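Weekly sync, protein design subgroup
Attendees: M.S., D.O., the rotation student, P.L. (late)

Item 1: inverse folding check
M.S. brought a backbone from last month's batch and wanted to see whether the design step gives back something sensible before we order anything. D.O. pointed out we never logged the input encoding, so this time it goes straight into the notes. C-alpha coordinates as presented (349 positions):
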Protein backbone atom coordinates (compact mmCIF):
# COMPACT_ATOMS: atom_id res chain seq x y z
CA UNK A 1 0.00 0.00 0.00
CA UNK A 2 2.76 2.39 0.77
CA UNK A 3 4.49 1.84 -2.58
CA UNK A 4 1.32 2.46 -4.46
CA UNK A 5 0.78 5.74 -2.61
CA UNK A 6 4.25 6.99 -3.31
CA UNK A 7 3.90 6.15 -7.05
CA UNK A 8 0.70 8.03 -7.39
CA UNK A 9 2.19 11.16 -5.84
CA UNK A 10 5.12 11.05 -8.18
CA UNK A 11 3.00 11.37 -11.31
CA UNK A 12 1.54 14.80 -10.53
CA UNK A 13 4.95 15.91 -9.49
CA UNK A 14 6.35 14.97 -12.86
CA UNK A 15 3.48 16.64 -14.61
CA UNK A 16 4.07 19.72 -12.56
CA UNK A 17 7.72 19.82 -13.54
CA UNK A 18 6.92 19.30 -17.22
CA UNK A 19 4.38 22.10 -17.12
CA UNK A 20 6.81 24.49 -15.56
CA UNK A 21 9.53 23.66 -18.06
CA UNK A 22 7.26 24.46 -21.12
CA UNK A 23 5.82 27.75 -19.80
CA UNK A 24 7.09 30.67 -22.10
CA UNK A 25 5.96 34.35 -22.52
CA UNK A 26 5.44 35.99 -26.07
CA UNK A 27 5.50 39.84 -26.25
CA UNK A 28 3.73 41.46 -29.34
CA UNK A 29 4.98 44.97 -30.38
CA UNK A 30 2.29 47.07 -32.24
CA UNK A 31 3.46 49.37 -35.15
CA UNK A 32 1.63 52.70 -34.77
CA UNK A 33 3.26 54.30 -37.78
CA UNK A 34 1.02 55.43 -40.67
CA UNK A 35 1.54 53.41 -43.84
CA UNK A 36 2.02 55.80 -46.77
CA UNK A 37 3.37 55.90 -50.29
CA UNK A 38 5.52 58.78 -51.44
CA UNK A 39 6.90 60.29 -54.62
CA UNK A 40 10.04 62.35 -55.11
CA UNK A 41 9.64 66.05 -55.91
CA UNK A 42 11.73 67.35 -58.81
CA UNK A 43 11.90 70.75 -60.51
CA UNK A 44 10.20 70.49 -63.90
CA UNK A 45 10.32 72.75 -66.97
CA UNK A 46 6.74 73.52 -68.05
CA UNK A 47 5.01 75.66 -70.67
CA UNK A 48 3.44 78.43 -68.64
CA UNK A 49 -0.18 79.05 -69.62
CA UNK A 50 -3.03 81.23 -68.45
CA UNK A 51 -6.60 80.28 -69.31
CA UNK A 52 -9.80 82.30 -69.62
CA UNK A 53 -13.31 81.48 -70.77
CA UNK A 54 -14.68 83.23 -73.85
CA UNK A 55 -17.74 83.53 -76.07
CA UNK A 56 -17.13 83.65 -79.81
CA UNK A 57 -18.41 86.58 -81.85
CA UNK A 58 -18.65 87.46 -85.51
CA UNK A 59 -15.64 89.44 -86.68
CA UNK A 60 -18.02 91.90 -88.37
CA UNK A 61 -21.78 92.29 -88.36
CA UNK A 62 -23.89 94.45 -90.66
CA UNK A 63 -27.61 95.25 -90.33
CA UNK A 64 -28.85 96.17 -93.81
CA UNK A 65 -31.45 98.90 -94.13
CA UNK A 66 -32.11 101.79 -96.53
CA UNK A 67 -31.57 105.30 -95.20
CA UNK A 68 -34.82 106.47 -96.81
CA UNK A 69 -38.08 105.33 -95.18
CA UNK A 70 -41.21 104.77 -97.26
CA UNK A 71 -39.53 102.56 -99.88
CA UNK A 72 -40.99 99.17 -100.79
CA UNK A 73 -38.86 96.03 -100.75
CA UNK A 74 -38.71 94.72 -104.30
CA UNK A 75 -36.54 91.60 -103.93
CA UNK A 76 -34.61 89.74 -101.18
CA UNK A 77 -32.11 87.37 -102.78
CA UNK A 78 -30.93 85.45 -99.69
CA UNK A 79 -32.25 83.44 -96.76
CA UNK A 80 -30.92 82.88 -93.24
CA UNK A 81 -27.92 80.56 -93.34
CA UNK A 82 -26.90 81.42 -96.90
CA UNK A 83 -23.22 82.07 -97.50
CA UNK A 84 -22.59 85.30 -99.37
CA UNK A 85 -19.62 86.75 -101.24
CA UNK A 86 -18.31 90.30 -101.22
CA UNK A 87 -20.19 92.37 -103.82
CA UNK A 88 -23.13 89.95 -104.07
CA UNK A 89 -26.58 91.60 -104.33
CA UNK A 90 -28.59 90.90 -101.19
CA UNK A 91 -31.63 93.20 -101.30
CA UNK A 92 -33.18 95.31 -104.03
CA UNK A 93 -35.59 98.12 -103.20
CA UNK A 94 -38.17 99.81 -105.44
CA UNK A 95 -36.23 101.96 -107.93
CA UNK A 96 -38.90 104.49 -109.01
CA UNK A 97 -37.24 107.31 -107.08
CA UNK A 98 -33.86 106.42 -108.53
CA UNK A 99 -35.18 106.44 -112.08
CA UNK A 100 -36.76 109.88 -111.56
CA UNK A 101 -33.51 111.26 -110.15
CA UNK A 102 -31.51 109.85 -113.07
CA UNK A 103 -33.82 111.63 -115.53
CA UNK A 104 -33.29 114.88 -113.64
CA UNK A 105 -29.55 114.28 -113.69
CA UNK A 106 -29.58 114.22 -117.50
CA UNK A 107 -31.10 117.71 -117.56
CA UNK A 108 -28.66 118.97 -114.93
CA UNK A 109 -25.76 117.43 -116.83
CA UNK A 110 -26.85 119.23 -120.01
CA UNK A 111 -26.86 122.56 -118.16
CA UNK A 112 -23.46 121.75 -116.67
CA UNK A 113 -21.90 120.97 -120.09
CA UNK A 114 -23.39 124.18 -121.50
CA UNK A 115 -21.91 126.17 -118.60
CA UNK A 116 -18.46 124.65 -119.20
CA UNK A 117 -18.50 125.70 -122.87
CA UNK A 118 -19.71 129.20 -122.04
CA UNK A 119 -17.00 129.54 -119.44
CA UNK A 120 -14.36 128.71 -122.06
CA UNK A 121 -15.54 131.67 -124.17
CA UNK A 122 -16.16 133.97 -121.23
CA UNK A 123 -19.88 134.12 -122.00
CA UNK A 124 -21.08 133.19 -118.47
CA UNK A 125 -20.54 134.79 -115.11
CA UNK A 126 -18.45 132.99 -112.51
CA UNK A 127 -21.45 132.88 -110.21
CA UNK A 128 -23.70 131.14 -112.74
CA UNK A 129 -20.93 128.73 -113.66
CA UNK A 130 -20.32 127.80 -110.03
CA UNK A 131 -24.04 127.24 -109.49
CA UNK A 132 -24.23 124.86 -112.46
CA UNK A 133 -21.21 122.89 -111.26
CA UNK A 134 -22.54 122.66 -107.70
CA UNK A 135 -25.98 121.48 -108.83
CA UNK A 136 -24.41 118.80 -111.01
CA UNK A 137 -22.09 117.50 -108.25
CA UNK A 138 -24.87 117.46 -105.65
CA UNK A 139 -27.16 115.55 -108.01
CA UNK A 140 -24.47 112.94 -108.76
CA UNK A 141 -23.88 112.32 -105.04
CA UNK A 142 -27.61 112.04 -104.39
CA UNK A 143 -27.98 109.41 -107.12
CA UNK A 144 -24.97 107.48 -105.81
CA UNK A 145 -26.65 107.38 -102.39
CA UNK A 146 -29.93 106.24 -103.94
CA UNK A 147 -28.15 103.44 -105.79
CA UNK A 148 -26.58 102.23 -102.54
CA UNK A 149 -30.02 102.22 -100.92
CA UNK A 150 -31.75 100.61 -103.88
CA UNK A 151 -29.31 97.77 -104.47
CA UNK A 152 -27.58 96.59 -101.28
CA UNK A 153 -24.54 94.36 -101.68
CA UNK A 154 -22.41 92.34 -99.27
CA UNK A 155 -19.32 94.24 -98.05
CA UNK A 156 -17.46 91.01 -97.18
CA UNK A 157 -17.66 87.23 -97.45
CA UNK A 158 -20.01 86.01 -94.74
CA UNK A 159 -23.27 84.33 -93.81
CA UNK A 160 -26.82 85.65 -93.47
CA UNK A 161 -27.81 85.47 -89.80
CA UNK A 162 -31.12 87.33 -89.85
CA UNK A 163 -34.06 88.12 -92.13
CA UNK A 164 -36.56 90.49 -90.58
CA UNK A 165 -38.89 91.54 -93.42
CA UNK A 166 -40.38 90.05 -96.58
CA UNK A 167 -40.61 91.09 -100.23
CA UNK A 168 -43.35 93.63 -100.94
CA UNK A 169 -43.32 95.13 -97.43
CA UNK A 170 -42.85 98.85 -96.98
CA UNK A 171 -39.67 99.88 -95.22
CA UNK A 172 -40.57 102.31 -92.45
CA UNK A 173 -37.22 102.61 -90.68
CA UNK A 174 -38.12 100.58 -87.55
CA UNK A 175 -36.83 97.34 -86.01
CA UNK A 176 -39.12 94.41 -86.82
CA UNK A 177 -39.10 90.61 -86.73
CA UNK A 178 -36.82 90.31 -83.71
CA UNK A 179 -34.08 92.57 -85.08
CA UNK A 180 -32.02 94.38 -82.43
CA UNK A 181 -31.57 97.28 -84.87
CA UNK A 182 -33.63 98.61 -87.80
CA UNK A 183 -32.81 96.16 -90.59
CA UNK A 184 -34.13 94.04 -93.43
CA UNK A 185 -31.40 91.39 -93.11
CA UNK A 186 -28.22 90.87 -91.07
CA UNK A 187 -24.93 89.51 -92.38
CA UNK A 188 -21.95 88.38 -90.29
CA UNK A 189 -18.33 87.69 -91.17
CA UNK A 190 -17.29 84.52 -89.32
CA UNK A 191 -13.99 83.84 -91.07
CA UNK A 192 -12.04 84.83 -89.16
CA UNK A 193 -14.12 84.62 -85.98
CA UNK A 194 -13.20 86.58 -82.87
CA UNK A 195 -13.41 86.52 -79.09
CA UNK A 196 -13.02 89.32 -76.54
CA UNK A 197 -11.31 88.23 -73.31
CA UNK A 198 -10.82 90.26 -70.14
CA UNK A 199 -7.47 89.41 -68.52
CA UNK A 200 -6.16 90.25 -65.04
CA UNK A 201 -3.89 93.29 -65.10
CA UNK A 202 -0.94 91.31 -63.65
CA UNK A 203 -0.49 89.73 -67.10
CA UNK A 204 -0.51 93.00 -69.06
CA UNK A 205 3.21 92.91 -69.89
CA UNK A 206 3.03 89.24 -70.95
CA UNK A 207 0.33 89.65 -73.63
CA UNK A 208 1.28 91.15 -76.99
CA UNK A 209 -0.19 91.51 -80.48
CA UNK A 210 0.52 88.47 -82.65
CA UNK A 211 0.90 86.08 -79.69
CA UNK A 212 -0.47 82.60 -80.48
CA UNK A 213 -3.40 81.24 -78.49
CA UNK A 214 -5.40 78.01 -78.50
CA UNK A 215 -9.13 77.49 -78.08
CA UNK A 216 -11.11 74.49 -76.83
CA UNK A 217 -14.91 74.63 -77.09
CA UNK A 218 -17.76 72.79 -75.39
CA UNK A 219 -18.88 71.52 -78.80
CA UNK A 220 -15.55 70.01 -79.95
CA UNK A 221 -14.17 68.90 -76.57
CA UNK A 222 -10.37 68.53 -76.44
CA UNK A 223 -9.88 69.58 -80.07
CA UNK A 224 -7.80 72.76 -80.28
CA UNK A 225 -8.23 75.70 -82.67
CA UNK A 226 -5.22 77.97 -83.20
CA UNK A 227 -5.55 81.74 -83.12
CA UNK A 228 -3.66 84.91 -82.33
CA UNK A 229 -3.93 88.15 -80.38
CA UNK A 230 -5.21 90.87 -82.73
CA UNK A 231 -5.70 93.83 -80.38
CA UNK A 232 -4.47 94.54 -76.85
CA UNK A 233 -6.61 97.35 -75.50
CA UNK A 234 -4.42 100.05 -73.94
CA UNK A 235 -6.37 100.77 -70.74
CA UNK A 236 -7.12 98.90 -67.50
CA UNK A 237 -10.68 98.77 -66.17
CA UNK A 238 -10.39 100.33 -62.67
CA UNK A 239 -13.44 98.45 -61.37
CA UNK A 240 -12.46 94.92 -62.48
CA UNK A 241 -8.65 95.43 -62.68
CA UNK A 242 -8.67 93.75 -66.10
CA UNK A 243 -7.79 94.70 -69.67
CA UNK A 244 -9.48 93.52 -72.87
CA UNK A 245 -7.87 91.49 -75.63
CA UNK A 246 -9.34 90.72 -79.07
CA UNK A 247 -8.47 87.29 -80.49
CA UNK A 248 -8.90 86.07 -84.07
CA UNK A 249 -9.29 82.42 -85.12
CA UNK A 250 -9.08 81.11 -88.68
CA UNK A 251 -12.48 79.62 -89.55
CA UNK A 252 -12.26 78.71 -93.24
CA UNK A 253 -14.44 75.62 -92.72
CA UNK A 254 -16.87 77.66 -90.60
CA UNK A 255 -16.85 75.03 -87.86
CA UNK A 256 -16.81 77.73 -85.19
CA UNK A 257 -19.96 79.80 -84.79
CA UNK A 258 -20.86 83.02 -82.98
CA UNK A 259 -22.12 82.29 -79.48
CA UNK A 260 -20.02 79.16 -78.93
CA UNK A 261 -18.45 78.93 -75.47
CA UNK A 262 -14.90 77.79 -74.81
CA UNK A 263 -11.60 78.18 -72.98
CA UNK A 264 -8.70 80.18 -74.40
CA UNK A 265 -5.10 79.39 -73.38
CA UNK A 266 -2.27 81.93 -73.63
CA UNK A 267 1.26 80.49 -73.65
CA UNK A 268 3.49 82.93 -71.75
CA UNK A 269 6.75 80.99 -71.99
CA UNK A 270 8.62 78.23 -70.14
CA UNK A 271 9.26 78.12 -66.40
CA UNK A 272 11.06 75.90 -63.86
CA UNK A 273 8.62 74.87 -61.15
CA UNK A 274 7.41 72.09 -58.86
CA UNK A 275 4.78 69.80 -60.39
CA UNK A 276 3.18 67.01 -58.30
CA UNK A 277 0.37 64.48 -58.62
CA UNK A 278 -2.98 66.19 -58.07
CA UNK A 279 -4.09 63.45 -55.64
CA UNK A 280 -1.31 64.53 -53.27
CA UNK A 281 -2.88 67.95 -52.72
CA UNK A 282 -5.59 68.09 -50.07
CA UNK A 283 -8.21 70.79 -49.47
CA UNK A 284 -9.27 72.19 -46.11
CA UNK A 285 -12.96 71.42 -45.65
CA UNK A 286 -15.12 74.51 -45.98
CA UNK A 287 -12.42 76.66 -47.57
CA UNK A 288 -10.24 76.89 -50.64
CA UNK A 289 -6.99 76.40 -48.71
CA UNK A 290 -4.74 73.58 -49.96
CA UNK A 291 -1.96 71.60 -48.31
CA UNK A 292 0.34 68.61 -48.80
CA UNK A 293 2.29 66.27 -46.51
CA UNK A 294 6.04 65.78 -46.89
CA UNK A 295 7.89 62.84 -45.37
CA UNK A 296 10.80 64.33 -43.41
CA UNK A 297 12.91 62.38 -40.92
CA UNK A 298 10.31 59.62 -40.89
CA UNK A 299 7.51 61.99 -39.88
CA UNK A 300 4.68 63.83 -41.66
CA UNK A 301 5.30 67.53 -42.33
CA UNK A 302 2.22 69.55 -43.35
CA UNK A 303 2.87 72.36 -45.86
CA UNK A 304 0.30 74.88 -47.09
CA UNK A 305 0.43 75.39 -50.88
CA UNK A 306 -1.24 77.29 -53.69
CA UNK A 307 -2.12 75.63 -57.01
CA UNK A 308 -0.89 77.89 -59.81
CA UNK A 309 -1.55 75.68 -62.85
CA UNK A 310 -3.00 72.31 -63.84
CA UNK A 311 -1.60 69.78 -66.31
CA UNK A 312 -3.96 66.82 -66.74
CA UNK A 313 -3.45 64.69 -63.58
CA UNK A 314 -0.69 66.93 -62.20
CA UNK A 315 -0.66 70.39 -60.64
CA UNK A 316 1.91 73.11 -60.24
CA UNK A 317 2.25 74.16 -56.61
CA UNK A 318 3.77 77.07 -54.73
CA UNK A 319 4.55 76.63 -50.98
CA UNK A 320 3.11 79.24 -48.64
CA UNK A 321 4.59 78.48 -45.20
CA UNK A 322 7.66 76.28 -45.82
CA UNK A 323 10.35 75.51 -48.38
CA UNK A 324 9.99 72.60 -50.80
CA UNK A 325 13.28 71.26 -52.17
CA UNK A 326 14.23 68.88 -54.94
CA UNK A 327 14.42 65.39 -53.46
CA UNK A 328 11.71 65.99 -50.86
CA UNK A 329 9.27 63.11 -50.51
CA UNK A 330 5.60 64.01 -50.97
CA UNK A 331 2.91 61.67 -49.61
CA UNK A 332 0.66 60.46 -52.45
CA UNK A 333 -1.30 57.66 -50.70
CA UNK A 334 -2.48 57.48 -47.11
CA UNK A 335 -2.33 61.23 -46.49
CA UNK A 336 -6.04 61.73 -45.84
CA UNK A 337 -5.82 60.85 -42.11
CA UNK A 338 -2.35 62.21 -41.42
CA UNK A 339 -1.58 64.91 -38.90
CA UNK A 340 1.55 67.00 -38.61
CA UNK A 341 4.34 65.06 -36.86
CA UNK A 342 2.83 61.58 -37.35
CA UNK A 343 5.47 58.83 -37.68
CA UNK A 344 5.42 57.17 -41.08
CA UNK A 345 5.92 53.71 -42.52
CA UNK A 346 7.10 54.76 -45.98
CA UNK A 347 6.69 52.92 -49.27
CA UNK A 348 8.40 54.65 -52.21
CA UNK A 349 6.61 54.63 -55.60
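Designed sequence read out in the meeting:
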Amino acid sequence: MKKSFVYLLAVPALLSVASCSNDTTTEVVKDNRALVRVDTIRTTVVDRKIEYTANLEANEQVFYAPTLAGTRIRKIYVEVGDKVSKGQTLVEMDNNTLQQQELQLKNVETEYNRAVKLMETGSISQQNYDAAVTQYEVMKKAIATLKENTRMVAPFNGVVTGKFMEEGELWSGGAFGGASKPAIIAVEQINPIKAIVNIAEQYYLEISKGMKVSLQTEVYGKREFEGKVNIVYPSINPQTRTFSVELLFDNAKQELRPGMYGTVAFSTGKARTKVVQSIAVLKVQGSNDRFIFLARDGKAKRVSVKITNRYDDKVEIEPLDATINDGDLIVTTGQAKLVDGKELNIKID
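Discussion: The mean pLDDT is 87. Helices lie at 2-21, 96-121, 126-150.
Action: P.L. to compare against the previous round before Friday.
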